[in-house]
Structures are given as structure tokens and as C-alpha cells.
Amino acid sequence: MTLDQLKAFLAKAKDDQSIQGKLKAATSPEDVVGIANEHGHEFSADLISLLSKEDLEGVSEGVCGLSRACCVV
Description:
The protein is an all-alpha fold. The protein has six helices and no strands.
């Protein structure tokens, strides 16, 4: 449950339209954790608040759901 796992998941999401679609629909940090778990990544919801704008860049608009769910931006 590390920040590295979270960043690895975001890197995977950059190239995966399916993950991006699920992230758009995410409404809470717990939703994001569930999506990540489905794809083999484990981290806690509280780690999401540690993300910076730079961490989110390049993941496309799919992460807007992540930003909305977690109030990151």
C-alpha cells in the first residue's frame, strides 16, 4: 500500500481507455482504490490526497474523475 503502487496505477491508466472510463465515473477515493485493486494495484484511499498535479498530468481526462473524487486539483 504505497505511493509507488498508486503512481504505477496512474501510469497504467495513461494507456488504458477502460481504466480512464472507470476513473471518470469515480465519485470517491474508495472508488478509485477499488478500480486499482481490479487491476492489481494496492494502496489506501488516503494516499490519493498526496498526488500532485504533475502526478495527474498525462493520464488524460480519465483522471478528472479521480480529481473530482478526491479534490486533488
